[in-house]
Amino acid sequence: MVSALSPSSPILTPKLIVADAGPLIALAVGGVLPLCLEMLGGLIVPEAVLQECVADISAPGALILQDLHRGKQLQTVATATLAPLDAAFAAGLGGGEIAVLAYAKTHGLLALIDERRARRVAARLNVAVIGSGTVLAQLKRQGHIHSVRSVLVAWAQHRYFIAEQLQRDIQRLAGEE
Questions:
Q1: What is the distance between the alpha carbons of residues 82 and 119, in angstroms, rounded to a whole number?
Q2: CA torsion 151→156→159→161, rounded to 10°?
Q3: Core-most of 3, 116, 136, 172, by most CB within 10 Å?
Q4: Residue 68's pLDDT band (boundaries 50, 70, 90)?
Q5: Which helix H or strand E contains 69, and what residues bound it?
């Protein structure tokens, strides 16, 4: 699930962003992950996240992510952990989400996370977050893709569901409405 967009969503400039599994998979199955890597200048992927993405090679996006990793287009880092006090905030999150938040917090980086609970924890940890919808809209605004709608359709075909209102918000931010 992708969380809400707002006009205050960060404008993305080339910089390193720590990515969680959900957005990586969505951007991969949408056919835009290589364009994201080009636009952003790279993505940092904790080992726990990569393993989550490629554990089942038949899963959506797994082959693409494995190929990008083998081609050294994804920068993988050791899985970080949160300090004990911070870990209390993260109860109920998956290992990949915790690794993303820990690395982003430690290094002062932006986190690419879609899951609502993880985004709430990020806010409590003062970690800046963007979602895959923001990345998608930015790809369109910068002329890297012709249609946000076609990517949203691909996401739905691969069972990456997004609320209709959020789809309209993404399209609006991309200038398609």
A1: 15
A2: 100
A3: 136
A4: very high
A5: helix 62-70
As a whole number of Å, the CA-based R_g of the chain is: 15
The set of long-range contacts for 56-64, using a CB threshold of 8 Å and a minimum separation of 24, is 59/25, 60/25, 60/28, 60/29, 60/158, 60/159, 60/160, 61/24, 61/25, 61/26, 61/28, 61/29, 61/33, 61/158, 64/28, 64/29, 64/33
**3-state DSSP assignment of residue 27:** helix
Cα–Cα distance, 155 to 123 (Å, whole number): 26
* Three-state DSSP class for residue 91: coil
Angstrom distance (rounded) from CA 47 to CA 104: 14
Q: 82 versus 168: which is more confidently predicted? A: 168
Q: What is the pLDDT of residue 88?
A: 66
H helix or E strand, kind and range, residue 17: strand 17-19
DSSP category for residue 127: -
- For residue 61, what are its two tokens? 């996006």
Return the amino acid letter for 140: K
Which tens digit of pLDDT belongs to each residue from 127-168? 999 999 999 999 999 999 999 999 999 999 998 888 899 999
